[in-house]
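User: Hey, my collaborator sent me this sequence without any context and asked if I could get a structure. I don't really work with proteins. Can you help?
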Amino acid sequence: MSAPTLSKSEAREPSPGRRPGSTRTDSAREEFLRSVRRNLSAHGFLIGAVLCFSFFSWYPMVREFILAFQKNENGETTWAGWSNLTYIFNDPAFWQAWRNTLLFTVLALLLGFIVPFVIAVVINEFRHGQGYLRLLVYLPVMLPPVASVLLFKYFYDPGYGLFNRILEVFGLPAQQWLQDTDTAMLSVVIAATWMNMGGATLIYLAALQSIPGELYEAAELDGAGILRKIWHVTIPQTKLILSLMLLMQIIATMQVFTEPFLLTNGAGPEGSTTTVVYLIYQYAFNFNNYGSAAALGLVLLVILAAFSAVYVRLSRSGEDE
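Assistant: No problem. I've predicted the 3D structure and written it out in structure-token form, which is a compact way to encode the shape of the chain:
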């Protein structure tokens, strides 16, 4: 006896208690819930990172922008308009701080930009022991910045410092490194260069090792020496990295604070090491003028944003190539 068969109309009718399309909706909902459960931890970490970035980066910038146009007198906060900006532009210390900051930037680029590149070129010529040399170069970066600065403060001591002892060996007169207006800024630059050149050296070394060896072999066949190989092969092949590192070091050096603050107590002899960031510190914590400090910080933010825009533009052009 054969089993009863359903007609086409009966087969198309949904089962009792189930609406048309409910099966598809339930499967989509289950798939969505599985996706949420699978990515819940990733979304949690992402939300946490966004909240931390917003609280520690965006909120201070917004707060600084608001403070730049406010003043606080007798515990009352009122809008000051452009008076804070007018005050800092009329302050002689403002222009002196910018001159010192630009001087520090130029000297730091002459040492902190060229010296790491030269060291990277020298290390790249070694066929053995590059790992030990990279570790040796990067050691100063691993030291706490305060410890490194205090070490150089001991070296600069006019009585028993290491640098004056070296000068005595060669019969040269002792120097007042941090107490003389002519050598105070240079002394700060030397300390900052020694502390921070390790990272730049490793970046340059990685860029050098990515250059095809055939280019150097072709240059050698043409009779090029080491200087011509550097000028015609090394520099053109690392031009993008050099330009990006130049902009990054300009941005970093214009925010210098730790080295002059610890070596020369911030201002230095006759204000020769007063930088823009240290002047912001003085406005806020020495003069209790938070409006002027925020206004000066806003000026620095605009200038650094311009350099950052150039950096992003160069990065995109490098990716397009």
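In plain terms: The CA atoms of residues 251 and 304 lie 6 Å apart. You can pass these tokens on to your collaborator as they are.
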